[in-house]
Write a structure and sequence with these properties.
The chain is mostly beta strands. The strands form three sheets. A six-stranded antiparallel β-sheet has the order 6-8-2-12-4-10, with no helix packed on it. It has a single domain, classed as GOLD domain (Jelly Rolls).
Length: about 180
């Protein structure tokens, strides 16, 4: 007699196999975070003049719940630049930015505080820079891999337009996860 073994998860549910490939069906961590209600975003657009900036200051709490963030920027009429600074000093007089939960059925809110265009007294240390070409029809820059934001820190995400009347789309996305270490 042959015994059949069926693998189960931590809750005792049987793991599923794809009927065609017979591989175990899994979802990646990003999809899990959306389903779990711990994936957030700030995505919008604005029109910026030549060399004009939009400064987003992101403040992380002093907890072990960390944000794993990506950021993408596109200029519809010209190039754009994205710079990220750590250790920013600001006075907190900017406009509050509301992050949305990707799981629209979840009431969970982000642990981050986000402000648009506060007064910056010190940019901090630049930890990332990317720029699309100037005088191009469109320009796209971004950090496609997650940047794990340090707890109890202020970050400046600076978007600079490289052309006049540039319609700039931006999208910051992140999931939040309590560090196990």
């Amino acid at each position: 007699m042959t015994a059949t073994v069926m693998p189960v998860d931590a809750n005792g549910y049987a793991l599923q196999n794809d009927a065609t490939t017979h591989h175990t069906v899994v979802i990646d961590h990003f999809d899990h975070s959306v389903n779990d209600g711990s994936f957030f975003y700030v995505c919008d657009y604005t029109t910026l003049g030549a060399s004009a900036t939009a400064d987003f200051v992101v403040t992380t709490p002093d907890t072990t719940t960390w944000a794993y963030m990506t950021m993408n920027i596109e200029g519809a009429n010209d190039g754009v630049r994205l710079e990220i600074y750590e250790g920013t000093t600001h006075d907190g007089d900017g406009s509050a930015v509301t992050a949305l939960n990707s799981n629209r059925n979840s009431a969970a809110t982000t642990v981050l505080t986000i402000q648009l265009d506060p007064t910056i007294s010190n940019d901090g240390t630049r930890i990332y820079g990317d720029q699309s070409g100037q005088n191009r029809r469109t320009g796209t820059v971004g950090r496609g891999r997650a940047l794990i934001l340090k707890q109890d820190e202020d970050y400046l995400f600076r978007i600079t337009s490289l052309g006049a009347a540039n319609v700039v789309s931006y999208c910051g996305e992140w999931y939040e996860h309590a560090s196990l270490d």
